[in-house]
Every structure is written in C-alpha cells, then in structure tokens.
Amino acid sequence: NYDTQAVKDEMFATASFWLEDVGVDGFRLDAVLYIDEDGSQHQTTPGTLQFWQDYNAHVKSVEPDVLSVGEAWTATSTVLQYVSDDRLDFCFEFDLSYATTGAVNGADPGYLAGKAGQVYNLYPYLQYGTFLTNHDQDRSFTEFGEEWGKARAAAALYLTLPGVPFLYYGEEIGMTGSGAHENIRTPMQWSNDWQAGFTTGSAWWPVNGNYPARNVATLAADNGSLLEWYKKLIHLRNEAPALRRGTLSVLGSSMDPVMAHLRTYEGQKLLCVTNTSGVAQGGITVSGSGADFEPGDYLLVDLLDPSHTLAVTVTEGHAIANLGLNGHATRVYEFRSASPVGDRPADLPR
Q1: pLDDT tens digits for the chain (350 residues)?
Q2: Whole-number Cα distances in Å, 94 to 120, 179, 327
Q3: How far apart are CA 311 and CA 300, in angstroms?
Q4: pTM tops 0.85
C-alpha cells in the first residue's frame, strides 16, 4: 500500500541499498502504471504519478547519474506522463514496437513512418526505449513466421531510428516462442552442445528443440547470419553519431514497401532506406524538404557495405531518384561530398 509512508520509505531504502552498497547504475521498473490504485481506477492515478516523482527525486539524490527505465505498457499519449515532470528518465515505446513489426509483416511502413515521426516529436529528445518484442510477448521471430528476411528488416528499422534500443535475448539468433511465458523465456541457445550450452545440469525449462541450428556458436561462423547482421547494425550505431544522437526526418518514398528516413548530427547526414517486402524495389524516389536536402550532386557511401557507393543528384524539389533495394534490404547512406561529383578522394573524412 503505497499510501503508507512506511512502505515508501522501505522501498526507497531498498533502492539506496542497490545504488550505494551494490553499485548498480539504474533500474528497469516493472508495471509502472499500477503503483497506487484509486478505487476502480487502476492505472496512472494521481498517486502513481506522484510516487514516481518522489522516487526519482530520491534516487537522483543518492546517485545523480542513476538511470530509470519504466515499463509503461500503454498508449504513447499516456506514457508521456511518466517521462514528464521529473519522473522516469524514459519508458519503453510499445506503440512504436507494434508499428515496427506490423510494417515488416504487412510489407507497408506507412503507419510506422507516421508513428516514428510522432513519437520523435512528442517525447523529450530521444527519451524513449525502442524494441521489437519483450519477455511477455510472442517472440519476434515467431511473429515474423520464422522468415529471416523479415527479421533482418525489422532489426534494421529499429536500430536506425531514434531512441534507446533494447534487444531481447535470443532475437539475434532467431529464437522462437509463443503462448505461456515459459515458452517465451526458454534458456538462451549458446551452442549445439548439451542443453544448448546453457548449463551442464538440468535447465529450469526445456531448451527449444531448434537449438542445434539456431545458436550463437553456429551463427557466429556464418557471415550472412541474422546474428552477424545484428552485430553489424550495432557496431554501426555505436560508430555513427547520427544514429545515436541525430535528429529524425521521415522522408517520402515513391514505393510503398520502402521506409526512408534521415538522421543528422552535426556534420554527419545519413539516409536510411529499408525494403519491408521480400520483393526487390527499383526506381525508388525519396523526397524531403529544403531542410533535409540541399540541391546538388553527392557521393553516397553505404556504411553497412562501404564498397557500395552511389552518385546521386538532389533535385530542386529536394528529391533523390533511381534508388534500388533487394528484398528486405537496408542501406545506410552517408553523404560524403557535394557537387561536382568526381572521383572519391582517398582521404575523404567520414
């Protein structure tokens, strides 16, 4: 009963213990909507919102750099209350996760494009958590009908969009699971050894039967695997300031299955394009505004495959034409040089 001061005091003392004695850097806070019920109102009551304000003031007084992420499983408009008025640092963005998986399953990123722009503009700058599915939902690879291409496209979308990305263990190797929580939280599949390398004893729950083929050791040896794709995306995000800290501009696309967005930070400008369908798309035109593209000739370099370069012209209408993408493919193009486009200098800075 969080209306009882002694309960709040004890919980705050517990938080202090983990911060001071154990030395944790932050907390993932479960079911933040349901702290203080008010009659028949169970979610987002005034008492709940006040509690998180008091909680945040306490933990910041103990450790100013502590990080708090909340699980507010509800609509964006309500989640915003939990990252406002000095409450939590950020929360998971469930509506955006549904939009991402829906874009890939429907081969249509139209709703995702709108949602990504809305979320970016509503929250404090980059202050929301992005993900595909979590430990309470059917696993993403199951949601994608165990199609590797869909999994690759979904990973590329949320790891090139703004926010703080989270990866649920096993998504990067195509672990499956649905229904009861136990089936979604099966032991991690590390190798094709006994118990998938999870334990030498008896696992708390049976290992998924697909572990001989879907495990870290096997997929790490395959340069074309989903695991290696995740590694490539994560390394790129770590290395590219525009993906971590950059602004977002959602662009128009002449092909319905293609999502295009621009990430910009200081001197780096990245054009991210993803084909959400399994069918190759050619003759793609992406369009923005004057703030997005300055007309002229440019050399684009795909940071996911630097051997792929492209000379393009940004028209007076702020558009780039004749792009192409294979099925479920992604390009992250960096603008490297302005007009006139010639041979790429060997020492051109990234």
Answers
A1: 898 999 999 999 999 999 999 999 999 999 999 999 998 999 999 999 999 999 999 999 999 999 999 999 999 999 999 999 999 999 999 999 999 999 999 999 999 999 999 999 999 999 999 999 999 999 999 999 999 999 999 999 999 999 999 999 999 999 999 999 999 999 999 999 999 999 999 888 999 999 999 999 999 999 999 999 999 999 999 999 999 999 999 999 999 999 999 999 999 999 999 999 999 999 999 999 999 999 999 999 999 999 999 999 999 999 999 999 999 999 999 999 776 444 444 444 43
A2: 14, 19, 27
A3: 6
A4: yes
Asked if 30 is an active-site residue, the reply is: yes
Cα 92 to Cα 76, 134, 148, 209: the distances in Å are 10, 10, 25, 31
Residue 271's closest CA among 319, 234, 230?
319
Is 71 an annotated catalytic residue?
yes
**Structural tokens at position 3:** 């209306």
* Catalytic hit among 21, 36, 65, 71: 71
Helical segments of the chain, H only: 5-17, 46-62, 76-82, 94-106, 110-122, 140-143, 148-160, 181-184, 216-220, 226-239, 241-245
Query: Residue 3, CB half-sphere, CA atoms under 13 Å: how many?
Result: 7
Round to whole Å and give the CA distance between 11 and 55: 9
DSSP string, 245-305: H-EEEEPEESSTTEEEEEEEETTEEEEEEEE-SSS-EEEEEEE--TTT--SEEEEEEETTS
**Which amino acid, one-letter code, is at 201?**
G
State how far the alpha carbon of 175 is from the alpha carbons of 134, 189, 200, 226, 304, in Å. 12, 8, 20, 11, 24
Query: Catalytic: which of 3, 20, 25, 30?
Result: 30
